Amino acid sequence: MIRVLLVDDQPLIRSGFRALLDLEDDIEVVAEAANGQEGLELARQHLPDIALIDIQMPVLDGIETTRCIAANPALARVHVVILTNYGLDEYVFNALRAGAAGFLVKDIVPEDFLHAVRVAARGDALLAPSITRKLINQYVTQPPASTSTALQELTRREREAVVLVAQGLSNDKIADRMVISPLTAKTHINRAMTKLRARDRAQLVVLAYESGLVPRNS
């Protein structure tokens, strides 16, 4: 069962998403919050698999809420998906850097919304490489020194795996490309995430482009 927390200051938005989720046998909405502070408290209480969080809210916005969740080891398994009205913008980029697994535009069609929730629950990134490149090109002028330094700790195979993750390949396809088992591919990716302090695959993709490991025009 996929356990979902809804965090949005608009009751109609929350009720609309809840109505869709409640129809699914494999998804359960465990709580709702009207601002980020409430959402953070409910995340600690319920430990959901997915936290659907509006990017602009009173008290504590979506970026800060995401950052707080990502910084809390007790919430390591909570995958944050940002909800936005506007699509690609600096707020979305900052939320991804803060630890969000991806983002959804609120006018998404129901089928795509439900699919996205299931994808995020598996731990996969809701972020196509083309979207990542656009965000990086628009909002990054210089890679953080900490990321560039951490890259030096990666082995050759770990760097290769990160590049393939950034290209949007699944673990199975990465394994085929690297001629290794899926388990070994997953191990390389997990070790790279640990060394780069990436919360999930989405953040790993951002870091790969941000650091220059993957060229922005590739």
TrEMBL record:
SMART domains: HTH_LUXR, REC
Record-listed 4-aspartylphosphate modification sites: D54
The HTH luxR-type domain, residue ranges: 147-212
Domain Response regulatory stretches: 3-121
Highest taxon of the lineage: Bacteria
Pfam families, per the entry: GerE, Response_reg
Alphabetically ordered keywords of this record: DNA-binding, Phosphoprotein, Transcription, Transcription regulation
The protein, known as: Response regulator
Organism field: Streptomyces albidochromogenes
